[in-house]
Structures are given as structure tokens and as C-alpha cells.
Amino acid sequence: AEVRQHKTPTDVWCTFRGRVYNMSPFLHQHPGGPESIMRAAGGDMTPLFEKYHRWVNADALIGHLCVGVIAPDE
């Protein structure tokens, strides 16, 4: 529920494989542009990541942006 509150260009959180990431610092570094990340803002970016970046080592790229783990009831 808290993740859904973070979906503005200056405050972007997404979930990915059960973890929560603050994507704000990476927003303008993404090669596809900020719009790509904003598509998943406040929600789960796993399906988009798996579709376009299956070969990328996500932990090496965004691991330092992890701010938590999804609660079991979410």
C-alpha cells in the first residue's frame, strides 16, 4: 500500500521480485528515459523488467536502491 503513494517524478518507488526500490535516483539515468520507469511507478516493475531486461543483473544495477521488502499481506 505504501509503494502506491510513491509515483511522482521526484518520488518513484517500484516493487521488483518481492523487494521495494526507490527508483528516483535512477530515473534520469535509465537509457530508455524516465518514462520507462514511470510506467511502473507505485507498482510492480517485474513484468516490464522481465520483458525488456531479462539478461540484466538487476541486483548489480539497482540493488543499492532497495528500501525494503514487501509485507506478506501485500
TrEMBL record:
Gene Ontology CC annotations of this record: cytoplasm
Pfam families linked: Cyt-b5
* Cytochrome b5 heme-binding domain sequence ranges: 1-71
Q: Does the keyword Isomerase apply?
A: no
Keywords of the record, alphabetical order, are: Heme, Iron, Metal-binding
Query: Which molecular function term from Gene Ontology is one that the record holds?
Result: metal ion binding
Q: What protein name is recorded for this chain?
A: Cytochrome b5-like heme/steroid binding domain-containing protein
Query: Species lineage, top-down?
Result: Eukaryota, Sar, Stramenopiles, Ochrophyta, PX clade
